[in-house]
């Protein structure tokens, strides 16, 4: 099998050092571990100038679009990395699936208004990437065999040359405001609880949207947010009129050497400034019967989703109710894993599992119907996924929570949570603010120049 060519570069702890050089290029994308958090924070991956860009047609089914993605990977061609080189990407697809792509995979209503200009999915086919390995402290340009020698030389020169970062700025023109009134949020939660009492569903993830007018360079917004809230599934993707800016702590699906795993988050408490109060919040989350029950509901849902693409009997739960803490919140996280069945690939896995159960509810399809009924606008990138899929079949993907769409002089973000029968609407309402508080406040400080 053809081998990729690899060119080492000096290691940089912050991959922004490299991305600055290409961020204005077509299809520029950075998948950023944000900080080394065990294996989940090991690699940063960036690229630009895709060979091809793929978006679903206006009425194209999700399975048809996935068939085109397979064809694009096949056209690029198989490749392997040199022996003993452990890197996650050897050329392939980088891009996103918006939450609303789910309606291309299942028969779902689309009553919510679509008022943001973002395609339901977009992928570039890339023949090169710069990959930083924070565990081994290396940085390497990886070239797929199909990339010509002139292009390889041009990229080596680009990344080895002296470079001065561009000085730009970003600011909000006014603070973020929620789309929903407090009373509207209350009404929606009560509506969900009536559905639950009637036996329609057990849990529904309900979200509200926040918006602010803005001006300037979305990259500077990302830099400020990454400094304030480093997370292992961050990402920056250029789009028409702006960028997707994601600071997600949540993995969706990873496929590596035939093993599948997913790490759903369900259960949240705010961080506190005083250490004892902060510890009390973490302990309360770990001890919460309600949060553990919600988490278990989603674990069971994801066991079912993975079971559709994994070998019978291989799906298990190696980690249940673990605590993960970030600058703004504590989270309750579990891990579900399995072995991919023979004849299945990463796109089959996505087709049977997207969108992630932790941000829909249970049962999934009914929960998504309720979301469409009660959330006034479509979710766009929120609760979708940023991901890579390489020519070897390796894949990793995020759940795009703690994510902003900065486009056409508007910054948009979302906060949500799982509603169950005994949810208190006021506590759930506050939780939507807690989850995105660090994002909104960081950008609001940029407005006054104090950050």
Write a compact overview of the structure shown.
Helix content is 30%, strand content 31%. It is of the alpha+beta class and 451 residues long.
Low-confidence stretches: none
The 3D shape can be described as: globular
Determine the N-to-C terminus distance. Answer: 50 Å
Q: Return the average pLDDT rounded to an integer.
A: 94
The top level CATH class name: Alpha Beta
- Helical segment tally? 11
Give helix % range.
Answer: 25-40%
**Radius of gyration based on Cα positions:** 21 Å
**CATH level 3 topology:** Anthranilate synthase
Name the CATH superfamily assignment: Anthranilate synthase
Number of beta-strand segments: 23
Largest sheet composition: 13 strands, antiparallel
User: What percent of residues are in strands?
Assistant: 25-35%
Number of domains: 1
Q: What class do helices, strands and sheet pairing give?
A: alpha+beta
Question: Any overview of this molecule?
Answer:
This protein is α+β, with helices and mostly antiparallel strands. It has a single domain, classed as Anthranilate synthase (4-Layer Sandwich), CATH 3.60.120. It is built from eleven helices and 23 strands. The strands form two sheets. Strands 1, 2, 3, 7, 8, 9, 10, 11, 12, 13, 19, 22 and 23 form a 13-stranded antiparallel beta sheet that branches. Strands 4, 5, 6, 14, 15, 16, 17, 18, 20 and 21 form a ten-stranded antiparallel beta sheet that branches. Helix 6 crosses helix 11. 49% of the residues are buried.
Describe how the helices and strands are arranged.
Blueprint: E1 5-9, H1 16-19, E2 29-32, E3 43-47, E4 52-54, H2 62-76, E5 92-97, H3 102-105, E6 121-126, E7 128-133, E8 138-143, H4 149-160, E9 170-172, E10 177-178, H5 182-197, E11 203-216, H6 218-228, E12 233-239, E13 242-248, E14 251-256, E15 259-262, E16 265-270, H7 275-287, H8 289-307, E17 316-325, E18 329-339, H9 346-353, E19 361-362, H10 364-374, E20 385-390, E21 395-398, E22 403-407, E23 410-419, H11 425-448
Antiparallel strand pairs: 1-8, 2-3, 2-12, 3-7, 4-6, 5-6, 5-20, 7-8, 9-11, 10-11, 11-19, 11-23, 12-13, 13-22, 14-15, 14-21, 15-18, 16-18, 17-18, 20-21, 22-23
Helix pairs in contact: 6-11
